[in-house]
UniProtKB/TrEMBL annotation:
Signal peptide: none annotated. SMART domains: PAS, PP2C_SIG. Keywords: Hydrolase. CDD domains: PAS. This is PP2C family protein-serine/threonine phosphatase. Pfam families: PAS_4 (PF08448), SpoIIE (PF07228). It is an enzyme of class 3 (hydrolase). The keyword Transferase does not apply. It comes from Oerskovia paurometabola. Residues 23-98 form the PAS domain. GO terms for molecular function: protein serine/threonine phosphatase activity.
């Protein structure tokens, strides 16, 4: 395991092994020298490597941690089990979503000098995904900084204020001691707010009877991890499945907030009215304009009907300036559903948008995606779309049960230029 970690850590920034000595930094040495305590974890949460700061913090040798599950290397109080479980759950979410998570200070005590003694410790933890060149989360970095002194100072400050001591001095001491600390504290608050906003918007998809719905979201921003791309999948009041992908202009918290408003309006209209996708796009545009929401977005929306006795369903979709959906047949062929592409949402009035329909059979899969899947600075959207059916066909042959992750691995580079949202809906056999 330690050798695996050294190979990861000594790789160059693009994921390839480093060149001859002297031509690139020794990333193993860099990792070991980082001042913040960090552990490198495999996807199964086995410790691959640990830096010196982490070992010094716990007073343990590397042999006590490397090659062992994360929580086997040191003891913690049974009273802290729930908080330890929260850390593990966060790591598993990061592995699944590819998004950084920052945990508020958690109390997890460590063993004292005497048997049965526990020493109070508070930790500020950050869990960070490490992507390989294919875009998969290949490892996790777990950062756990001991902030016990800050927490205890805060308690003492509260007590001191109650007895009338000078709070200005105490508050200054608590402010992490430097402008760098203040900037990091502000950044962490903003990042946490961004993550909470994103998580509240991109909820888990519905799983209607006879269908399997899968979703993926990969942000462009390494820092905020929020943007204007979104997915949605739910049942209309008629029982039909309704799926959406969209892309609001922008890659920041403002774009995410606008996206959340647009998504909420659309799902409310779609659920309550049971109208067709084109009608729902038109009503959504009128509603957000009337509410004063300034939003320009591309959107693809699709409805999959309830099955006929034979299991056949009707797929109805409409597009507002969005890349065309793809239909993957049970036989393994892929067809881009190129039809009339209507105007973007939010770019002015015009004639109503158009619905398109095809029949889908058990074993068929509908794929909706945002342009970040196929478009690059050096690959125009049209060219990326032309390549997509061949790539999907290859992926379906090699990874039929792992379609979305395999597509991301093939098409989305390590350094993403744009957000990517994906939705697939498979009609199950025997539905």
């Amino acid at each position: 395991m330690a050798d695996d970690a050294r190979r990861v850590a000594s790789a160059s920034p693009d994921g390839h092994p480093g060149g001859p000595p002297g031509t690139s930094p020794d990333y193993r040495a860099v990792f070991a020298a980082l001042s913040a305590p960090k552990i490198l974890l495999a996807p199964d949460l086995t410790v691959l490597d640990v830096n010196d700061a982490y070992l010094d913090m716990l007073g343990l040798p590397a042999s006590a941690l490397v090659g062992r599950p994360l929580n086997d290397g040191f003891e913690f109080s049974p009273a802290d089990q729930d908080r330890v479980d929260r850390v593990v759950a966060s790591l598993r979410r990061v592995l699944r979503t590819g998004r950084i998570e920052l945990l508020e200070p958690l109390r997890i005590d460590v063993t004292g000098a005497r048997p049965g003694e526990w020493v109070e410790r508070h930790w500020l933890m950050t869990n960070i995904p490490v992507f390989d060149v294919s875009g998969r989360v290949a490892a996790l970095v777990h950062r756990a900084e001991d902030v016990t002194d800050i927490v205890q100072t805060s308690r003492r400050a509260a007590t001191d204020r109650q007895v009338g001591l000078d709070t200005a001095v105490v508050d200054h001491a608590m402010h992490l001691g430097s402008s760098v600390g203040r900037f990091q504290e502000s950044f962490d608050r903003e990042r946490r707010a961004a993550l909470e906003l994103q998580d509240s918007i991109l909820t888990a998809p519905a799983q209607p009877d006879g269908l399997r719905v899968d979703v993926r979201y990969r942000p462009a921003s390494r820092e905020m991890h929020v943007g204007g791309d979104w997915y949605d999948a739910f049942e209309q009041s008629c029982g039909c499945a309704f799926v959406v992908v969209g892309d609001v202009v922008g890659h920041d918290i403002s774009a995410a907030a606008t996206m959340g408003q647009l998504r909420g309006v659309m799902r409310g209209i779609a659920y309550d009215t049971g109208e067709s996708p084109a009608e729902i796009l038109d009503r959504t545009e009128r509603t957000v304009a009337g509410l004063g929401v300034s939003a320009v977005a591309t959107v693809a929306a699709a409805r999959i009907s309830l099955p006929e006795p034979s299991g056949v369903r009707t797929l109805t979709w409409a597009s507002a300036g969005h890349p065309p959906p793809a239909l993957i047949t049970a036989g393994g062929s892929t067809d881009l559903l190129r039809r009339r592409n209507d105007r973007l949402l939010g770019v002015g009035s015009g004639t109503g948008r158009t619905d398109h329909t095809v029949t889908v059979h058990p074993g068929d899969t509908l794929l909706l995606f945002t342009d970040g899947l196929v478009e690059r600075r050096d690959v125009p959207l049209r060219e990326g779309l032309e390549r997509l059916p061949g790539v999907v066909d290859d992926v379906v042959r090699s990874s039929p049960d792992d379609l979305l992750d395999a597509l991301l691995a093939r098409l989305v580079p390590h350094h993403r230029e744009d957000d990517v949202a994906l939705v697939s809906v498979t009609v199950l056999s025997g539905a």
